[in-house]
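Continuing the batch. This is chain 6 of the set; chains 1 through 5 are on the previous pages. Same settings as before, nothing changed between runs. Recording input and output for traceability.
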Amino acid sequence: MYVERYIQTNGNFDEPFGIADTFISRLRPVLHVANFSKAPITIAQGQLLGHARNPSKWLTKSSEMSPNQNNAVQAHCSFVRKLIQQGSHKHLTSSHTVRSESEITSKAHRNIIEPDDPLAEDPIEGGPKTAETGIDFVSSEKLLSEVHISTDLTQEQQQKIEEVMIQNQRAFGLDGRLGNYEAKVDISMKPGTKPISLPPYSASPANREVI
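Output for chain 6:
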């Protein structure tokens, strides 16, 4: 299996990590991740590390390349082979292999399955810091005056557009028709839970894909 190189960050562009183009065999299914930052990184369970490809269909065959391209590939392979034979990999700064397993992938997951921290501070009164916007009420009688029609159109074209708007005025949120649903919804929460005010925090790449 061929895995295409993939560089990413956990929300901090100063801490990149990723993989190089890699061939993985059945006998040794290992994918090496290079950490280019100065601190350890945490890879969550299910986090995307690369895109697996079928090498026989994805990679260019030697028969499909020109003689110059074939010569360049052979020269590069010879160079890499010589470096390996000479043991040049010993001059690398450092290399560590770390294996970790975790069943918890996000703070939201911990909030659901774990009990509340008894030492945590009381939540800030007032709940989340959100700004409510007023309802933009537009009367159906003011539809034509609220919609801007380009003045580059001829008067006849503008009149036709106005006729279409009037005939299809139910497609617009007029007279408070959209956004008002007189119903109450019960949201199940932990017993004794109070409103919590938290600053925004970033999600992992795996959680962002789900979101």
